[in-house]
Specification:
Length: about 140
């Protein structure tokens, strides 16, 4: 999935909102209070339910420019990239990319079938989230 969207908020504000969310998630799942500078290459385990967890690795953090992370489970590897391009003092362009690699033939078929159906809803939800971020500024 790939989404490119122009937002009427400064790149620093968008980046700050994303980082606040990331730091909250890290604190919730590890008990550690990190700074933005400590996030690069940071890894932690996130428990989703009793039988579901994933390893999260922050792969790239560049102030007001990029945030990339990878979520790995026993079934798949999920890469998310936020690239932020300032357009001027009041707006920015967000380039969001999501890639998933599934392990095993049956998992690949299942993910392909479900992914096609879910893609529409995920894009719609992501665009709603961007709109809310823009409105909260």
């Amino acid at each position: 999935m790939e989404i490119v969207k122009t937002l009427n908020i400064p790149a620093s504000v968008f980046y700050g909102q994303v980082m606040d969310s990331v730091l909250f998630d890290v604190r919730k799942h590890t008990g550690k209070s990190l700074t933005r500078k400590q996030l690069n290459n940071f890894e932690y385990v996130k428990q989703f339910s009793k039988n579901s967890r994933a390893r999260i690795k922050v792969e790239k953090v560049v102030e007001n420019t990029a945030y990339h992370f990878r979520t790995s489970t026993t079934k798949n590897d999920f890469l998310v990239q936020y690239d932020i391009k300032p357009l001027d003092d009041k707006s920015c362009e967000i380039h969001y990319v999501e890639k998933m690699e599934s392990y095993g033939f049956l998992q690949k078929i299942n993910d392909a079938a479900v992914g096609t159906i879910m893609m529409f809803f995920k894009k719609r939800q992501f665009n709603k989230m961007l709109k809310m971020m823009e409105q909260s500024y």
